[in-house]
Amino acid sequence: MWYAKLLIPANDGMLVASRAKKHKIALFGYPLSFQEKNNKFLLLCTGHVVGASANKKAFLSDLKKDKRTMKIDMVNDHFGFWLLDQHPSTKMFYDPLIIYVKPFYISPQGDQILELASWDKRKLMAIARAIQTPLYGGKLLSMTQKKINHIAIMTTFPELTDKQKRAFDLAVEHGYYGYPRKISMQKLAKIMKTSYATYEFHLRNAEKKLMPYLHSTIN
User: Fold this and answer.
1) How far apart are CA 219 and CA 214, in angstroms?
2) Which of the listed residues 49, 120, 157, 179 has the most CB atoms within 10 Å of its CB?
């Protein structure tokens, strides 16, 4: 198969990516299906929102206000399903003969990373040419022919326990991963109202699950 990795920066017209940039959240998602109805191109997708709790809430609230958001069903503040009215030009990304090798990734800077595969190189090249126009301002990062030995389709993000997620969210929210760090693990443990050892245990286990996945997604 042919395999392409693409980068598309956010612009103001993008429904999700522009808001990810505005509210400084990341998003991992997977398209499930699409439908053309009443001159609308409706895309159903699922995914995980990653970031500080306040940022996630602001992002979701902002997204709901846009008339292009047809439905949102959030299981909690980080996982849900979206039905979006997309511009017809985006149909090329959802061709039935194109495979999403990994969930799409939208960074807190609004950059979208897509990893797509197809037997038909022409379909991928058409997308690559389209995203390099002024409308998208993107670029083709790589195009290779290789065997695809697995795809990330059953789950879009590693499963965390409630305590692992709480520990990780607090670390993100309070700047633990910033440079320089804005808070110590001891203070995070106090915020979570647990011991240092217990907090460290939950955070390290969350990182153990998340970091290999994040590394594979951005590389």
Assistant:
1) 9
2) 49
